[in-house]
Amino acid sequence: MDVFKLSALIVKYLRGTRDAQAQAKLEEWKTINSANRNFIEDIRDPNLLGEELKVYNSFDSNKAWDQFVITNKLNRNSSIYMQPLLRVASIIVLLISIGGVLYFLNTMREQPQQLTESSIQPGTSNAVLVVDNHSIALSDTVNTVLEDKSELIASISNGQINYNNEVSSLLEMTVKVPIKSEYQFVLSDGTKVWMNAGSTVTFAHPFKGNTRSIKAEGEVYLEVAKDATRPFVVELPNSNSIEVLGTQFNVKAYPDEHLHKTVLVEGSVLWKSNNGTERLMEPGQLLTMNSSDNWIEVKNVDVNQYIAWKEGLFVYEGERLEDIMRSLARWYGVTVTYQDEVIKDLHFSVDVKRYEHLNDILKMLEVTEKIYFTINGSEIIVNKHN
Amino acid sequence: MESDTVIHAINSYLLKHDLRSFKVIYHHFYKSLCFFANDYLSDSDTAEDVVQDVFTQVWDNMPEVSEPSKLQAYLYAMVRNRCLNRIRTQQNLQKYQTNEIQEIAWDDDESVRIVKAEVLREIMASIEKLPERAQEVFKLSYLTQLREQEIADRLNITVNSVKTHKKRAKSILKDELRHLFSLISIFHL
Question: Are B79 and B27 contained in the same domain?
Answer without folding.
Answer: yes
